[in-house]
Amino acid sequence: MKTRNLIIALVLASAFSMAPHSQSIAQTTGSTDETPVAASAPTAVPLLVPYPGAAIANDGKPVTGETGLTFQIYKDEVGGEAVWTETQTVAIDPTGHYRVQLGATNPNGLPSDLFATGEARWLAVQIAGQNPQPRVLIASVPYALKAADAATLGGLPASAFALAGRGNLTVATGPSPVTSNATTDVTTTGGTANNLAKFSGSSTIVDSILFDNGTEIGIGTSFPAATLDVRGTTNLHGGASVYNESTATTSAGSHSYGLDFLSSVYDSSTKAAVKPLLEFRAEPTGNDTATPGSTLNLLSSNGIAGATETGFYFNANGTINFAPGQTFPGGTGTGTITGVTAGTALTGGGTTGNVTLNLNLNQVPLLTTNNSFTGNQTVNGNLTVTGSIYAGLVSGTVSAGTVNATNAFDLGGQPFAFGSFASSNVYLGFAGNSSATNTGGGNNRQRCRHPILQHFWRQQHRQRLRCALLQHHGL
């Protein structure tokens, strides 16, 4: 059909229907039994806008039955005051979907100047008792309400401009017919209901891959299962956001909508295919604190019950919390620690939780505390003692290479060997005292009752006498 010719023809037909067909028509304006053509033409444009939507509660479940819905139109996507508001009681189907006519509660419908400026308008929907849903941009169709002005001039009908005085109104046709510049016929072989049309060529219209059933849009499918159902690959040249399901309060935060990954598995118990899924979603932490945050959690479902937490999630700082029972592959320096066993001279260990190992003090001495030893002890190297060495009953053999003592040795708490290197005095046994002030002995030199010690004392005494004689003769 010739589209432009058709439009012009309709306009001409409307114009010529106002009077008989002749080159010159005389009309008496004073006649009272004739009605002006403009007044008899239908001018009532329905100022209503159809709107389909879905009522989803804050918990993500659909609302059903009769529910109060408030519709508001704004100039901006966020903020600002509503330029129009209306509340309707709407019957919502079991899936949460509904269809309304915006402006239906007002006898005059929507205000005619609501879209007159040509500026964008945003629609917000709020379910009674729920948070407002995000605003959506109103499509171009409602702006066609501006077309209602085509039947008026400055808001007045054509009859308002008829001549008030009596006289003749002459209407003459122009000397040249009105013609169209259109030269191309646009044709179509028909289309499919709910499929959006597209130009397949310069003059042919066919179905596109877009399908709109009024509540869902399908791309590549005529059976959309969501608000937007895409069958095919998708490339995003820009950001993508998954919003929170509701707005947080002081009592609770809100997690995001889930990003689901589904598979298909045949269930032998139900004799049907099910769709197990793994779902990622952001979950709030630190609600109503000075350190709010979130984690990215992994949930799972067997395709029959709802998704539940796995225990695996990413923290805001990038660290990972693993699910209970998580194990790691083995290998050098890697693998899962299943238990810690205490070895020689150690105590403690365990297989779960925090594990602690300690020294077995019955086997390992401590350097900064007192220790008790049983059994034979061997010291390889020099033994230096800054205090005293005490012994109770000494049995067996005590062997030593070089023994260095600053002042004395005690046995059983009594002085046994003492002396002075400066005065060349040595005293052995348990007689006398430990004073070393007299060179040569005096009362400080006491004989020892033990034969071996007496022999040792005599040898020491002879040595001192020799030294004295040598010193006396100056040798």
Model description:
The protein is mostly beta strands and 475 residues long. Among the domains are: 3-42 and 154-172, no CATH class; 49-151, Immunoglobulin-like; 194-230, no CATH class; 259-321, no CATH class; 408-472, no CATH class. The chain is 8% helix and 28% strand. It has three helices and 26 strands. The strands form eight sheets. Strands 9, 10, 11, 12 and 13 form a five-stranded mixed β-sheet that branches. A hairpin with a 4-residue loop joins strand 21 (340-341) and strand 22. The chain is rod-shaped, with a radius of gyration of 54 Å. The chain starts with a helix and ends with a helix. Mean pLDDT is 75; it is low at 1-42 and 438-449.
Shape: rod-shaped
Uncertain segments are 1-42, 438-449
Distance between the termini: 151 Å
Q: Return the CATH topology of the domain at 49-151.
A: Immunoglobulin-like
CATH A-level architecture of the domain at 49-151: Sandwich
Spell the H/E element sequence.
HEHEEEEEEEEEEEEEEEEEEEEEEEEEH
Mean of pLDDT: 75
| Beta strand % | 25-35%
Q: How big is the Rg?
A: 54 Å
* Strand-pairing-aware structural class: mainly beta
CATH class of the domain at 49-151: Mainly Beta
What summary fits the major beta sheet? 5 strands, mixed
**How many DSSP helices?**
3
Number of extended strands:
26
**Residues in helices, as a percent range:** under 10%
